[in-house]
Each structure stands twice: as C-alpha cells, then as structure tokens.
Amino acid sequence: MLSWFLWLRRPRFSLLSVSAALLLAGSASATWMETGDVDISILTPTIQSVEASAVQPGDIMNEVFVGDGLFETTGEVTVVGEGSFLERKQLGEWIIDHGTGNIQSVVGTGHFRVQTTAASGMPGGLHILNSDIDGNGILVYQGTLTVDAGSKVTFVEVFDNASAYVTLGSQIGNVQTHDRAYLSLKESIATSGFPCGLEGTVLVEDSVFRCGAMSVHPGATVDVRTLNASSSRLDITNHLSVVSGSLDVSNTIATTGTLQVTNTNVHLGIGQTQWTNAGGGRIFVSSTSASAGMTVYGGSHYHDLGTIRVAGEPAVSHLRVTEANTEFEVDGDLRIGEYTVVTQDRTYSGNVTVADGATVTVHGTLAIRPLGVLNLEPGGTVYAESIENDGTINENGGTLVLPEPASALTGAAACAALLSVARRSRLQR
C-alpha cells in the first residue's frame, strides 16, 4: 500500500492542513498513513498542526504554507508521486513565502502563489519537475518558478521582479508577464487560446510560442530566436500588437493574423525568418528614434497577404528592408504615408528604405502619399504592379521595376515613368 511520508525537523512555525482530524504539535517523529500514490516529505519547517486521520486516496492537501516570516527561516515542502499518472490529485492552494516548494512526478490540480512577506525579503521558489499541473494557475509575485523535464502547467502569470524558467520539453499555457518580470522559454512550448500580454523581458529560445493574440506592451523586450538545429516558432492566430516595446525575431518561422507596430520608440526586427501575415498591418510610429519602426533583414522572407500601411504622426514611420536575399512581399498594397480615413484633409508620413541586396515586391499598388518617401539604396530593388505617386522617390543606386514600358529603369527615367503611370492610374479610377 502506498502512502504519504511526513518527515519533521526542528520546531518552527508553519502550517500544513489536510482534510480530517489528527493534531500533531511540535512533533519530531515520522508518521506513515495509507493515503494513495503520493509521498510528501516536509523538511523544515515543523508542522504546527496536521489534520489527517481520515485522508482519502486522491486527496492531497487543502492548504500548504511554506516559510516562516516570524523567524525568517526557509521552509521546504516536497511532493513526489510514486504511482500511476492516470489519477489527478487535488493539490489545493499553496502559499510559498520565502520558502521552496517542489512538485515532482505528480498529476494534480491546484493554485500556487510564490511571494515574500518576510522582513528579510528572501523570495520564494517553486520547482515543478516531470509533472502536470492545472487549476487556477501559478502566480509568481516575487521569487522564481522553474518548470522542467517535460512538465505541463496550464496557467502562468509572472509579476514585477519575479522570474520563470521553462525548459526541456515543458509546456505552459495562458501566459502573462508584467513590468520588470522575466520569462525564459528554452526547448519548450508556450501556448494559449487567450491573449498574451507581455511586459518585462521575455526570451524564447529553440521553442514554440503560440497565442490567440499577443500584445507587446510599453517597455517590454521580447526576443524569439533559434540557436540549435530546430527552428523556433511564433504563431499568433489573430492580432500581434507591438506597442512602444521591442520584439526581435530571428531564425524563426512566424505566422500572424494581423500586425500592428504602433506608438513611440517601438521596434520590430525580423532576421533570418520566414514570416507570413494573413491580414495586413500598419506601422504607425510617432518617434524620431533611428531604430523605431520595422526592420526586415538577414535573408528573411516576409509575406503579407493583405495591405501594409507605413504612416506616422508627428514623426515619420519607418520600414527598412535590407541585406542580401531578404524579401518583403505584399499581396495587397504598400502605402507609404496615408490620408486620414474620413476627410482626407490630413496626411501621415512614412519612409520605406530598400538596400543591400533586398527586394520588395508589391502585387497591388505602391502608393506614395504626399508625405511618403521611398529610398532606393544601392542593391535595393522594388517591384510594383501598379503605382500612385504623390510623394518622393530618392534614387541612390537602387532599382525600381515598373509595369511596361518603364521596366527596370533607374534614376530620372524611372521617376518620369512613375509620374506617367500615376497620372494614368488616377484617370482610370
């Protein structure tokens, strides 16, 4: 018969409650009870009271408090599963206060809060190893969460100054991070049907990050990259919004529903990445920063199935496509600068630069509005099926390829042909 194992050391104050009715106060002896396929070893602090005379198989704990603010000691509670993974255990609610909780080889349902209220300020820690935990989730207010060795956790929220590390084939869901939080995902999966709101620092390395929608909030730094042979993936079913934060994606396969890069000091970098965006997007940046806006580089292929708008106010929005073998393809229109939607009595400014062996292909209309600028730098090539130009083209050694008879022209000849095509296009509408 399998059992719980309670190992008690030096007297400290802490609380472990399990359903039923046995009181142990300050005891230092080991106690065995037949309860099911889980062993619980409690290594400090001592149990102040335990009610456990009628524990049923499948019940584990109602409440666990780890840590002792009065004496500023560190407690440790370890739960180890021994039997079949088929039966999900009720783990109850854990409060890990500058102590350590260990969950190993357990399938269970529970709620965990990692924090510190002690004068010493020592944070708590929760380690989940080879386990499957669902329920109301894990909230990391201060301290560290480690999810390791193929574990699964259905909900993780990391608050200010707290950290979470997910490694070695583990999986977490419904991810939220807050200001100054840190989340590291390595060789693992984060997946959520709900929107993922990201603040602080998020590192996704050799991993998969899936969300119904993702919002990169002001001040956030999100880095998705591949270091080993298997490529990382970024899959956003609906909307990706980068708002005054930074998102860098490198050597990754990415799919998004719609894309919005907006507000001040915002940056989206795409390097060595295959990115498909289904519903078009908007780059609307109000910043004078040289790095603000969207940059596609390093042989990436960005394919947008809709229309892209590059427009900002009062500063200029930037789209940069650069480096050899980099391709930026738009099935709809590429609009550089934009009129206001309703009255068209006001325009927004946009700047697109193509350079160093990169190409931009527009299957719809290349529309350059009065405050729009297209920079054709050395090695940069732009292909467009149709063109409307009310703005500026700076030809600095790049190539603009237009419909006949203006194909593959550079310099003044391309500009003259562009004006001619634009006038014909306006007359035809």
Structure commentary:
With 429 residues, this protein is mostly beta strands. Helix content is 4%, strand content 54%. It has one helix and 42 strands. A 16-stranded mixed sheet has the order 4-6-8-10-12-15-18-20-22-24-26-29-32-37-39-41. The model is unreliable at 1-62, 67-74, 406-411 and 420-429 (pLDDT under 50).
List keywords for this structure.
429 residues; mainly beta; 16-stranded mixed sheet; 8-stranded parallel beta barrel; 1 helix; elongated; disordered N terminus; disordered C terminus
How many angstroms does the end-to-end distance come to?
A: 83 Å
Q: Give the spatial strand order of the biggest sheet.
A: 4-6-8-10-12-15-18-20-22-24-26-29-32-37-39-41
Mean pLDDT, rounded to whole units? 75
Biggest sheet overview:
16 strands, mixed
How would you concisely characterize the structure shown here?
This protein is mainly beta. The strands form 4 sheets. The chain has a 16-stranded mixed β-sheet. It has an 8-stranded parallel barrel with strand order 25-27-30-33-38-34-31-28. Strands 1-3 form a two-stranded antiparallel sheet.
